[in-house]
TrEMBL record:
Leader sequence segment: none
PROSITE patterns noted in UniProt: HTH_ARAC_FAMILY_1, HTH_ARAC_FAMILY_2
InterPro entries tied to this protein: AraC-bd, Homeodomain-like_sf, HTH_AraC, HTH_AraC-typ_CS, RmlC-like_jellyroll, RmlC_Cupin_sf
Taxonomic lineage of the native organism: Bacteria, Pseudomonadati, Pseudomonadota, Alphaproteobacteria, Geminicoccales
Keyword Transcription regulation part of the UniProt annotation: yes
Protein species of origin: Tistrella mobilis (strain KA081020-065)
Keywords assigned by UniProt, alphabetized: DNA-binding, Plasmid, Repressor, Transcription, Transcription regulation
PANTHER family linked to this entry: HTH-TYPE TRANSCRIPTIONAL REGULATOR NIMR, TRANSCRIPTIONAL REGULATOR-RELATED
Name under which the protein is recorded: Pyridoxamine 5'-phosphate oxidase-related protein
Amino acid sequence: MSHAPETIGHALDGPEVAAFTVELKREFDTEAHRHPRGQMIGCSRGVVTVLTDQGAWLVPAGYGIWLPPWQLHGGRSFGPGAGWTAYIRPDRCTELPSTPRTVRVPALLREAILRAASWEDERTDAARARITGLILDEIRGLPAEDFGLPMPAEPRLQRIAQAILEDPADGRSLDGWAAWAGITPRTLSRRFPRETGLSFTDWRHRARMMRALEMLAEGASVTAIAFDLGYASVSGFIARFRQSFGVTPAAHPIVPGLQSPVRPDR
């Protein structure tokens, strides 16, 4: 495309879909920002974590994240990586998902977006219109995957969640976290699933698993990850990882050197 991605992201006119490829030789951080176009971000190598005001979303290789127009978001990559992004004009987002979601990217959608990324200008013709329509149809029907970590809205619960994200290895009990935040254990155990859809224990486990994937992408050993995340044994960590993703850490496609993402059996 003839414009920079950040310019296209703020464009209310122009092409319905503007796509770009990205090659990352090192990790990056982006500050929280928003733009009027919807955005689909896909990861073909490495891992990206996208932070929104609604939660944290992990995007490993073979997956993508949909962000609706004006969604506040920032991001960070882990290890060298590659991927693509597609900006959708706001008037074409009305039938697309209204909340962020992590999705498995079908080969058809990936190839259509890569084709759009190869266009060197913004002209429109029948062939491009068909590809644009295909991209929108594919995004519209994608089911959400379990790589999101919803954030609670209640300030005390949010404080607990943020502390766990900053230090997933913190092994405090539910009672300990409740006392730290000035909330009763009963309120914590009842409100956490009401606001996030996950029990407090399951939320903390998912936070640890998301961090485990980030560390795997950075090349950390399974032993180091297990103890850095507060597990009492490597075998206990591997069992939890297999329960979450259907494969052991060493067999996960996110591990450097494994090129083809494999959908784990669930």
